[in-house]
């Protein structure tokens, strides 16, 4: 007990009452600070959400751009391949004319033996070059195929069935799956009239 007749516990109540206005002021300041911080958190949350949306939009634009670039590269590669194939086909077509002329000269009866041997060598070189370039002669035996043969004439011949190739007039060639020049052929009608 104290000299004034109060106990320490009683004295604490006095201190609490005296401190109450200070605590109330402190509570008010804390509440204000808490409200301010909550406002800042809300603003930051909105800013983060906005940045996330912006980031997502940027990622989508980047993905779209990457797709366009990949498509551009694929298209460019495909166009280069097509151009190379077309250039090779054009060159091969021109060389076929030279080969035809050579074949015609070799088919002549009045070519001397030495010239024929030399021309045959050139002819073999042409054929080897064509083979290495995947240029192949079209088979002109059997049934007529409009995708690989060009019918020049129809003849009646009992030795052949309807639509069967009787003879080849000019050789046809392919490069890969593409027909460079169809084989020009004579086709049987199948009737003997």
TrEMBL record:
Ranges of Acidic residues composition bias in the record: 1-19
Keyword field contains RNA-binding: no
Chain coiled-coil ranges: 34-82
Subcellular location: Cytoplasm
Primary location: cytoplasm
Domain of life: Archaea
Name of a matching Pfam family: GrpE
GO cellular-component term (any): cytoplasm
InterPro entries per the UniProt record, alphabetical: GrpE, GrpE_CC, GrpE_head
Region (Disordered): 1-31
Keywords for this protein: Chaperone, Coiled coil, Cytoplasm, Stress response
Record PANTHER family: GRPE PROTEIN (PTHR21237), GRPE PROTEIN HOMOLOG, MITOCHONDRIAL (PTHR21237:SF23)
Assembly with partners or alone: Homodimer.
Function according to Swiss-Prot or TrEMBL: Participates actively in the response to hyperosmotic and heat shock by preventing the aggregation of stress-denatured proteins, in association with DnaK and GrpE. It is the nucleotide exchange factor for DnaK and may function as a thermosensor. Unfolded proteins bind initially to DnaJ; upon interaction with the DnaJ-bound protein, DnaK hydrolyzes its bound ATP, resulting in the formation of a stable complex. GrpE releases ADP from DnaK; ATP binding to DnaK triggers the release of the substrate protein, thus completing the reaction cycle.
Family membership: Belongs to the GrpE family.
Name of the protein in question: Protein GrpE
Species of origin: Halorientalis brevis
